[in-house]
Design goal:
The chain has about 550 residues and is of the alpha+beta class. The chain has two domains: about 220 residues, no CATH class; about 300 residues, Beta-galactosidase, Chain A, domain 5. The chain is built from 14 helices and 20 strands. Strands 1, 2, 3, 4, 5, 7, 11, 14, 17, 18 and 19 form an eleven-stranded mixed beta sheet that branches. A nine-stranded antiparallel beta sheet has the order 6-8-9-10-20-16-15-12-13. Strand 4 and strand 5 form a beta hairpin. The longest helix has 26 residues.
Length: about 550
Amino acid sequence: MDNTRLFLFAATAFVGMLIWQQWQVDYGPQPVIAEQSNNEVANQDLPNLVNMEDLPDIDDQSGSKNIEIQNDTLQASASLITVETDVIIVVIDSRGGVIRSVKLKKYPLTLDDPNEFLELVHSSKDTVHILQSGLRNRANTAPTHHSIFESQKQNYIMAQGDDELLVPLTWRQDGIEVVKTFRFIQGDYLVNVEHTVLNNSGSDWQGSEYRQLQRTRPLSESKLINTYTGAVYYNEEDKYTKFSFDDMEDEKLKINSTGGWIAMIQHYFLSAWIPAQEGTNLVYSISSTNRYPATYTIGMRSANKTVTNGGSAEFNSQFFVGPKLVERLEEITPGLDLTVDYGVLTFLSKPLYWLLSFYHSYVGNWGLAIILLTFTIKAVFYKLSEASYRSMARMRKVAPRLKKLKERHGDDRQKMNQAMMELYKTEKINPMGGCLPMLVQIPVFIALYWALLETVALRQAPFILWIQDLSVMDPYYVMPVIMGISMFIQQRLNPAPPDPIQAKVMMALPFVFTIFFAFFPAGLVLYWIVNNSLSIAQQWVITKRIESGGK
């Protein structure tokens, strides 16, 4: 902040919170995300996900117990189907139509290899993040995500100029035919999933649709900046609600929801299931900790539908796997944009993000957009900052007189305080005048922190020269050093603390915060450099004016 003492209080508390969060993280190996062919995925030692405990309960209003399903499919994977559009590469398991892999073609894993795409949905020996869906009924005449489907092809590629790509899978048993169709849209991360039930069994068929997201805990977390990874759900009654992996272990989620959605979120990205908004669903969770790797599932199950003999019915849902692009999420369904998690200061972070995006639309560089946003914030708080600097300049002006008072009264703190108050009254100085205006700006700083942290567009976004990714720390630590220097200069413009110990602590602050900011994303450090530079200019002008006898 502009006032160094207030900055110490706010930043220490903020960094302390981050450090406390990090102590909660178990240190482990980095997850291995490797490029794999279809055959490699099919033949690798996948975890034993064929376990009937990851199926939702059957909706049985008569009170009968669920029918036990014989598990004779011990293989983790059957044959795999690859689907490629202009933005994603998807691997669908013919066992259940499970989405086992989704790679994002516009989001490389690293800058070094632009053709190694981020694999958001994946399935490996130690880490799992998959999407499952299926139908359930008491008679066991419905395909779950463990049932074997037939596919016409093993590879689907969206041709240039096509608006959509259909991938149908078929399941048949006892006169029931179910066609599970994935509808991929050009340029979109949203996929429609349709279960069409054709009943020629000789009797009525009744069943429900379920969709669920299953994943393991992350193998590692950021050592300093820790964002939420886990399940969330939304409906009009409960609004946006987090349900963490620990929550799943403590209790089973089981609530009725009209419309809404479920999701697994992480930094910058999410996977979500969106049902038909007019229907009623049961939102549930499943914690499978008795196997390796332990998995956590959040799901939604629809109400039952009855299909008469010779008739048909459809179950429709959508899933989204991709980046947290606020504008697109707002279009899909109410509340989905809340997965861009700004915390309790969303009402401030969203306008800041909007303004940042507005500037980027004109300058085309996110670093320049951050600079313009900083100028804007500084202009909005100009008068508050001016009052604060004027108060500090007056304090600086009387600092020699305060020093003499301290020498005169020695260790008599009572007389020293009385003399200080008399001096402040004579010179019309408010000791809190430098702090109170800054307090108003603390929420804005925190809101801007989360706005920058949650903006996926900053991921791998270049600025200038060596800064090729504003979402990670400066590889050469140049910007943190510049920030530390600016903080030192700003501190020299502030009145020196009368207490020697406090003065030494203040002198050490620029070095301490240089170390802290060395691990912060370059975009955040850029904001502080620009903010400090503007503050120095404003404070220097006001200080010189006061010291020369002006107001």
